Amino acid sequence: MEFRDLKQQYQYHKNKIDAAVQSVIDNVDFINGKQVKMLEHELAVYVGVKHCIACANGTDALQLALMTWDIGKGDAVFVPDFTFFSSGEVVPLVGATPVFVDIDEDTYNISPHSLEKAIEYARQNTDLKPRVVIAVDLFGQPADFGMIRQIADKYDLLILEDAAQGFGGRIGTKKACSFGDIAITSFFPAKPLGCYGDGGAVFTDNDKWAELLRSYRVHGKGSDKYDNVRIGMNSRLDTIQAAVLLEKLKFFDDETEKCNRVADEYTKLLRDTVKIPIVKDSMYSSWAQYTICFQDDEKRKQAMALLKESNIPTAVYYRKPMHQQEAFRDNAVRILDYSITDKLCKRCLSLPMHPYLQTEEIKQITDIVRKIC
Ligand SMILES: Cc1ncc(COP(=O)(O)O)c(C=O)c1O
Question: Is residue 243 located within the same domain as residue 282?
Fold first, then answer.
C-alpha cells in the first residue's frame, strides 16, 4: 500500500503526461517555455485571482511574498506552531522575527483567539512591529479566514496564506489561494497538486505586488534579466514541471472529490474510536493528509507498529512543534501557551490518503486502528 499513490496516478494518465513532457524536450524549451505562461494563466483562473507567479518551490514562494512586502528586521510575523518548518523558516531568512501561535483543537489550523493574544503580547512586551500573519491551510482545510481577516484589519496586518497543503480546498465557493493578500502553494510531488520535482506558485490580486514578485523571482530584474534593479532570487518553475501540471490540473477536481470520499469512509469507520479530523461547516478540504489523534503516545506507537507489520505506511506530521525547533532558539518569540500543539504532536498520526485507495484497504487500516483502541 502507498501513503500517496503517485504510481497509480501516473499509470492512469501516462500517455498524456509523457506526451506533454516530450513536447517540451522536442522544443528544447526548458526555461520560461510557453507552458509556464499557460499554467500561470490557468491557475489564476482556477483560483479566481488576477495574478499567478510560478516559482521553484513553496518555500521560495513564501520568501518572495515577504520580500515583496519588505518584511525584515524589527518586524513580527505570526506563524502557527503546528506546521511544516518552511512556514516559519522564511521569517528569519528575511531578517524578521517569527512569533509562534497555538492552534485550534478541531481543525489544527492557527487559532484566531491565540493569534490575538500573541499580537497583544508582541505589542506590549517586545519592540517588534506586528506586520504579517502566515495562515496555513493545514492538511487541506482552509484556515478560519473570516476571523483572521477581522483580526488582521484590527491590527493592520497583512495575511500571507500558506496553501502548500491546501490547494483545491474551499470556503463556500471561494477557493484556497484566494484568501490571503498574497497566497502561495507548493507543487512538491505529494501535495494535492504535485509535479514531478519541485515547484511552487504565488497568487495575488495586487498589480504592484505581482510586478515585484516577477522581478524578485528572476534576480531582481528590471526591463530584463540583465538589468537588475533589486537583489532577488533565482526561482523559476521549469517548463517540464509546468507541462506536467497542466495535464494534472485537468483531473485535479475529480481526484480531490475522490479523496473526499476516502475521508468520509475513514470517518465513518473511526469516529467512535479515535479523534478524527473535523472539517468545519462550509469548508471543503483537499485532504493533503487524513490525520487522527490517539489517546496518548503509547497508543500511537502501538498503532504505527501494527500497521507497519501489515505493510501499511503512516507518518507523523508533526512530531516537534515549531517553538521547540533548535533553529528558532535565538530568533523567535516562543514563550506563549502551546498546549494544544504540544498535545497533538504526541498523539497525531497521518494515514494513507489518495484517490486510488480502495474500500477494502480502508477497512484493513481502520480495523487495525480499532483493534489498538
Ligand atoms: C505548510 C507548508 N508550507 C510550505 C511548504 C514548502 O513547500 P516546498 O517543499 O515546495 O518548498 C510545505 C511543504 O511541505 C508545507 O507543507
Answer: no
Question: Which residues have C-beta atoms less than 6 Å from ligand 1?
Answer: 57-59, 83-84, 86-87, 136, 162, 164-165, 186, 188, 198, 200
Of the three residues 200, 225, 247, the one that is the final residue of a domain is 247
Q: What is the mean pLDDT of the chain?
A: 98
Q: Are residues 351 and 276 in the same domain?
A: yes
pTM above 0.85, yes or no: yes
Task: Please give the distance, rounded to the nearest whole angstrom, from the Cα atom of residue 364 to the centre of ligand 1.
Answer: 30
* 106 pLDDT higher than 90: yes
Burial (CB count within 10 angstroms: exposed 0-12, middle 13-18, buried 19+), residue 178: buried
The reply to whether omega before 121 is within 30° of 0 (cis) is no
* Residue 342 CA to ligand 1 centre (angstroms): 21
Q: If you measure from the C-alpha of residue 332 to the centroid of ligand 1, how many angstroms do you get, rounded to a whole number? A: 20
Per-residue pLDDT tens for 42-92? 999 999 999 999 999 999 999 999 999 999 999 999 999 999 999 999 999
224 has a pLDDT exceeding 90: no
Give the residue numbers spanning the domain of 238: 6-101+108-247
